[in-house]
Design goal:
Elements lengths: L12 H7 L6 H39 L11 H16 L6 E6 L5 H15 L4 E7 L4 H14 L7 E3 L42 H15 L4 E6 L3 H9 L1 H7 E7 L2 E4 L2 E4 L4 H4 L2 H13 L3 E5 L1 H6 L6 H6 L4 H21 L13 H7 L29 H7 L4 H7 L12 E4 L19 H17 L11
Parallel strand pairs: 1-2, 1-4, 2-3, 4-5, 5-8, 8-9
Antiparallel strand pairs: 6-7
């Protein structure tokens, strides 16, 4: 019998026999049956609640207490990703894409994850990294952070320059440096000779490096992909002073952030950080791209949140002992703790008033994937650690520089995505609740994208001490 609440109450043959004995026994039988019903219901509810609690405790133990086995090799599926990449490179008939990156390293951990993905693509011959520009104040520190990270990835030859503050030159807007950003053991020294030319002297160092890279490309009859995963101030400033040079040297631009299409034109979303750092720069640079016919590929947060990266990925990278793996594990917790404590504040006191505690738990954790009792309070402070996701916004855009042949072979993109010949957006948000409109579309194949990124991030760390493919041994 179904009690109507999911509990199955078995009938009793003895009850049927007793009921046949006459009306004198009806009342006592009903009382007895009701008692057994209450006892059965209470016991079933107790067992159900106990089961939920055990599953919750198991999930908590698995995420916090269970030690991660040492990462020594790739899985079969991850090894297949490498085989696909090697085959694409082997069969290519055109030069590999060359990539220049403007990034705000250390502001969030995903910029470093993007660098690690690019490093592995570079090592495999999929792309060639030409250089990095680190912007957003304190840009000098970000360049030193990047120099240390590049050296630890055996990319000593790749230049990195200090960029702009990321904000308008006139004004009092600035980035508040967080305590976790530069708490690392691989930071390059100020007097590192590799930093002397393009780092510390002036904020114009990034412009100088970008000018040199453009001139070199044009002299060789080549073009490069420009990957923009931070404030657009540097790209805009360069387009103002060297527009012809940028137009002639850049084949396409890959961006991460908030964007939409309007009458076939790519428009920046003012709510997205990379655009609102310097809104005027964002608007004018988009006009520059449109007027000069520069193709763009955009990866939005809709695509990012659809990509379910293994939440234990950074813990696994840390087991290798490699400094970047250890940093990613540490900063994932420190950064998200800052964000979560802010999200728990009242409106007007958060980093972003639209991102409250419930929003954080839904987007940055897998908290709701586990059973919780109805009255169980939300996690407090470090209690969120077992539930944290790995959200690597910029890593998707980094993979997007690999070339159409690679993206097709890995099957990471949904080819039906909305876009024009000049602009493609991967990740279209759905309409607000109660509003009619096209449904949300991630623009990617989430499982394939997650697998590719996990493989490259693991391989990036495993291959640092070796020039071999990090296949299983």
């Amino acid at each position: 019998m179904d009690a109507g609440n999911g509990n199955i109450i078995p009938s009793s043959s003895k009850d049927d026999d007793d009921n046949k004995q006459g009306s004198g026994h009806v009342s006592s039988n009903l009382d007895s049956s009701a008692g057994r019903y209450r006892q059965q219901y209470s016991l079933s509810a107790l067992i159900s609640a106990l089961g939920d609690r055990i599953r919750s405790l198991w999930a908590h133990w698995r995420n916090t207490m269970a030690p991660e086995p040492y990462l020594t090799h790739l899985s079969d599926a991850e090894e297949k990703v490498y085989e696909i990449l090697v085959n694409v490179v082997k069969n290519r008939r055109s030069p590999r894409p060359k990539v220049v990156v403007i990034t705000d390293l250390a502001k969030d951990y995903d910029d470093l994850a993007a660098m690690m993905v690019l490093k592995e693509l570079h090592r495999l011959g999929v792309v060639e990294i030409l250089g990095f520009i680190a912007n957003l104040s304190p840009a000098e520190k970000r360049a030193r952070f990047g120099r240390g990270a590049l050296d630890s990835l055996d990319l000593n030859h790749v230049p990195i320059a200090r960029g702009t503050s990321g904000f308008p030159e006139k004004g009092d807007k600035k980035h508040d440096e967080m305590s976790y950003e530069f708490d690392v053991d691989f930071m390059a020294d100020r007097d590192d000779p590799k930093l002397a030319k393009y780092l510390l002297q002036s904020q114009g160092a990034g412009q100088e490096l970008l000018e040199k890279l453009c001139q070199d490309a044009i002299a060789k009859g080549e073009k490069f992909t420009l990957l923009l995963i931070s404030s657009l101030e540097d790209a805009f400033k360069f387009s103002e002073n060297h527009g012809d040079l940028l137009r002639d040297a850049v084949s396409d631009i890959v961006l991460q952030g908030g964007y939409y299409l309007e009458d076939g034109k790519l428009k920046p979303d003012i709510k997205a950080n990379n655009n609102k750092y310097d809104w005027e720069a964002a608007e004018k640079f988009h006009t520059f791209m449109q007027e000069n016919g520069i193709s763009t590929s955009v990866y939005t947060k809709t695509a990012v949140f659809a990509c379910k990266i293994d939440p234990k990925l950074f813990d696994k990278l840390a087991t290798t002992g490699q400094c970047l793996g250890r940093y990613l594990q540490k900063v994932n917790r420190a950064q998200n703790l800052e964000f979560y404590e802010s999200a728990c504040q009242e409106a007007g006191h958060r980093f972003d008033d639209d991102k409250d505690q419930l929003n954080f738990l839904r987007t940055r954790t897998n908290y709701f994937d586990f059973p919780h009792s109805p009255n169980e309070p939300y996690p407090v402070k470090e209690e969120i650690f077992p539930y944290l996701k790995v959200v690597v916004y910029d890593a998707l855009a980094a993979l997007g520089t690999a070339g159409a042949d690679v993206l097709q072979a890995l099957d990471v993109l949904d080819v039906e995505i909305k876009g024009t010949a000049q602009h493609r957006i991967f990740g279209i948000a759905g309409p607000p609740p109660g509003v009619n409109g096209p449904p949300e579309h991630s623009g990617i194949h989430p499982k394939e994208m997650a697998l590719a990124l996990e493989a490259l991030l693991k391989g990036s760390v495993l291959a640092v001490k070796s020039n071999e493919l990090p296949y299983k041994r």
